[in-house]
Specification:
21 strands, alpha/beta, 9-stranded mixed β-sheet, single chain, binds flavin-adenine dinucleotide, D-Amino Acid Oxidase, Chain A, domain 2, FAD/NAD(P)-binding domain, 442 residues
Length: 442
């Protein structure tokens, strides 16, 4: 039995799915987004990069974003030993053209983008889960069912639909990655994150109050992401084995980690938790293939590499934009498919490699952080690192050679202290600066 026929069916209505849906619908394609949740729903991934701005302009959501979300002018990284810190501003990035990104409450951001794809002509079915996939020569058949979490299902029973192409944007669920057994986890990046939202975390006034702040310890790091003038996302990341050894619930572990870190204590004296404590673990992986004859993977469904450099949403939007453009061309002329799919995969893998290199370096000893926290104006190296962290794909030679030199210093730092050595071990908090248990919502 055959169902309704679409040009493209998209699994998942996160930033990747909604970006691709808007662009395909605008190109006149018949597109359906299948999303198992009802938006707004909580999601992690709140600190964005400036290089997504061009895509937001193309989507036509820039003004809505400007009206709704906090700007992000850069970041600050603080050594947990309290001896040094470094701020960077996107305006100072190599040949920077964008001085800001956004810090977003994802439930609102994702809903805004998904509603926008609807307004642009995409069909969006929420609380609808893709439960079966079947590939035929010229089409994909999907069985969709009411999501098990749905309280008010619009679908009463499983339904069939068909599409010429399937774009998997199902996030860390990696629907097709699991289906084809493509998922390769990065064993050395098996981390555990615990996070929540707080009111009244201390922050500076003005532009510095918009920065993402990270506190880097020896075996863990913290993030503080300002979401509104008073609300802050706070999280900690450590090895999964470290979390297990604590033998604590995520809630207690988050509280203990904060209490042991004077840089966090100093900022969280008056903090009150206003959300449940969430956690996520073992999340770094990539799929061995990003396309097949009738399908493409975009966003986290293609791969996810650690949250440390806030690259997830940037990669999701960048890959979805490229996937939508490729599919639109292919729908007009299938002969272009082999070349366009190969180019797509090459491009997405290259940008993921760029971030993988940063991430590997961040977690391999102290070289990266010691060099990063001692930025040099020499040869505009700091500006080049800043640009790549802002989402510049670094394909220009002017950035490439600067990155080679930066990584040379990071490696050499193991043997010669070009930058001051850091212990990254917090000093014991003095009695007067320690805080009581974090206040929380009941
Ligand atoms: C601890 C942590 C911190 C992070 N911090 C940041 C950060 O600061 N900045 C940043 O840019 N990124 C961050 N990320 C990454 C970011 O969360 C993701 O990269 C981003 O959400 C990817 O978007 P996406 O659209 O690919 O997937 P998602 O946003 O996950 O969307 C996928 C959607 O697919 C739906 N879905 C899944 N399976 C099915 C199915 N079978 N049928 C129907 N629907 C389905 C899901 O309900 C979901 O809504 C972080 C990640 C982690 C784990």
């Amino acid at each position: 039995m055959s169902g309704e026929m679409y040009d493209v069916a998209i699994i998942g209505g996160g930033p990747a799915g909604s970006t691709a849906a808007t662009l395909l619908a605008r190109a006149g394609r018949r597109v359906v987004v299948l999303e198992r949740e009802k938006f707004p729903r909580f999601h992690i991934g709140e600190s964005l990069l400036p290089f997504s701005t061009k895509a937001f302009d193309r989507l036509g959501v820039r003004e809505k974003l400007d009206r709704t979300f906090m700007p992000k002018h850069g970041g600050e990284i603080i050594a947990a030993c309290g001896t040094t810190s470094a701020k960077f501003y996107f305006k100072d990035g190599f040949e920077s053209r964008r001085d800001r990104a956004y810090q977003v409450t994802r439930s609102e951001f994702d809903k805004m983008l998904l509603d926008h794809s609807r307004e642009n002509g995409a069909e969006v079915r929420e609380e609808t889960e893709v439960t079966k996939i079947d590939f035929a020569k010229d089409r994909v058949r999907l069985e969709v069912s009411p999501a098990s979490s749905s309280k008010t299902p619009t679908l009463q029973s499983p339904t069939l639909l068909e599409a010429r192409y399937l774009l998997d944007c199902s996030g860390r669920q990696t629907t097709l990655g699991n289906f084809f057994k493509l998922k390769k986890t990065y064993d050395h990046l098996q981390k555990f994150s615990i996070f929540a939202h707080y009111e009244n975390v201390d922050r500076p006034d003005g532009i510095d109050g918009t920065l993402i702040r990270m506190v880097r310890g020896l075996d863990r790091w913290f993030w503080m992401i300002p979401l509104t003038p008073t609300r802050m996302s706070v999280g900690v990341v450590m090895d999964t084995s470290t979390f297990r050894a604590m033998k604590l619930s995520p809630e207690d572990a988050l509280e203990k980690c904060v209490e042991e870190q004077p840089e966090m204590v100093a900022r969280m004296q008056k903090a009150k938790r206003v959300s449940p404590v969430y956690s996520a673990g073992d999340y770094s992986y990539r799929n061995a293939k990003l396309f097949g004859d009738r399908w493409l993977l975009a966003g986290d469904a293609a791969g996810f590499i650690d949250p440390v450099f806030s690259s997830g949403v940037f990669l999701a939007i960048m890959s979805a934009e490229k996937a939508a453009d490729s599919l639109d061309e292919i729908l007009s002329d299938e002969r272009r498919k082999p070349r366009l799919f190969r180019e797509y995969s090459h491009c997405v893998n290259r940008v993921m490699d760029l971030y993988l290199r940063f991430v590997n370096s961040w977690y391999s000893g102290k070289g990266f952080i010691e060099v990063f926290l001692n930025p040099t104006e020499m040869l505009q190296l700091a500006a080049a690192v800043n640009a790549v962290l802002a989402g510049n794909e670094g394909s220009r030679f002017a950035i490439k050679w600067r990155m080679w030199i930066f990584y040379f210093f990071v490696r050499a730092q193991r043997f010669i202290a070009f930058s001051p050595r850091l212990s990254l071990v917090p000093k014991k908090p003095e009695a007067s600066t320690s805080m009581g248990p974090l206040e929380s919502v009941s």
